[in-house]
Amino acid sequence: MSPVSRRQAVAGLAALPFAASSAAPRAFGASGRCFVLVHGAWHGGWCWKKIRPRLMAAGHEVYTPTLTGLGERAHLLTADVGLDTHIQDVVAMLEVEDLRDVVLVGHSYGGMVITGVAQRAPQRLAQLIYLDAFMPDPGRSLADYTRPAGAVTSPAPPSTTTSSAAAPARDWRVPPRSTAEEFGVRERADVDWVQARLGSQSGKTFGQPLPTAPDVPANLPRAYIQCTTDAWFAEAAARAARLGYPTRTLFGGGHDVMISEPVRLTTLLLELAG
After folding, report:
1. Which stretches in the chain have pLDDT values below 50?
2. Which of 174, 171, 179 lies closest to 142, judged by CA?
3. Residue 62 backbone dihedrals phi, psi, to 5 degrees
4. Is residue 19 part of a domain?
5. Rounded to the nearest 5 degrees, what angle is found at the Cα of 212, between the Cα atoms of 210 and 218?
6. Does 108 participate in catalysis according to the annotation?
7. Total count of domains within the chain
8. Phi, psi of 245 (to 5 degrees)
9. In whole angstroms, what is the distance from residue 24 CA to residue 17 CA?
10. Catalytic member of 2, 21, 31, 108
11. How much of the chain is helix, strand and coil, in % rounded to 5?
12. Residue 162 lies in a domain
């Protein structure tokens, strides 16, 4: 083989992966949907470990971001981390990955986040699914919804040190309000696994309200899955039904159904996403 033909052959072989890559359809999302699953307070992207492979096996693309200051990003936790930080986490991921027609799922506090994302980047979304989650209006914070239910009325609880000369100091770190078992996790191995990963969260995330504008586009489909009878989730589910959103119940698995009831939850997500 001549030097010229050898160079041509090598160049042709080198180009093959790129040509195949541009011509071949994506492994996921070509005929399925793109799911972005946003965890709740004190959790991380790790909590979807039983859901992600099931959705992928059904032919869907799945992203499970961890919000700043939690999970493997716990080293980034500061008092300045707020709801706006977590909204930006998800918006940035949608933009960097160039995701479109996304089914955006928010669990618990994650309902605050996905609503803010829908305010910022509705053109990238196909649907919002609230999973036992807060479903806030613009200008409202999570604390606005928990306060009437008799829960914590401030985003940061008092510290253990008090002084007679001054009001009690307050820590900006908010520890988990429940244990893994209280979140509904049942299997011993799962309880240990979850409990080891639950972490504190910045109080600012609970007290910072959503922007007052823009509103979430009225034509963006939304659905609700209620898993517990906690007052704020029951209220959100009832409001979703009044607004005409598809609503489902998944009782019996507690709040963390992504861990305690992965098969039933996957079935519901696929049903609601069509």
Report:
1. 1-30, 149-169
2. 174
3. -135, 130
4. no
5. 95
6. yes
7. 1
8. -75, 145
9. 10
10. 108
11. 40, 15, 45
12. no
Full residue range of the structural domain in which residue 150 is found: 28-156+171-273
Are the C-beta atoms of 103 and 220 separated by less than 8 Å? no
Q: Which residues make beta-bridge pairs with 158?
A: 170
Which of 182, 160, 169 lies closest to 255, judged by CA? 182
| DSSP 8-state secondary structure symbol assigned to residue 171 | -
What gap in Å lies between CA 227 and CA 254, rounded to an integer? Answer: 6
Give the amino acid at 263.
V
What span, in angstroms and rounded, lies between the C-alpha atoms of 43 and 110?
10
Q: Mind listing the pLDDT tens digit for each residue in 236-262?
A: 999 999 999 999 999 999 999 999 999
Q: Are 258 and 110 in contact (CB under 8 A)?
A: no
Q: Check which CATH number belongs to the domain holding 95 and give it.
A: 3.40.50.1820
Contact 36, 113 (CB under 8 A): no
User: Does residue 55 contact residue 266 with C-beta atoms inside 8 Å?
Assistant: yes
Residue 182 located in a structural domain: yes
In a domain, 7, yes or no: no
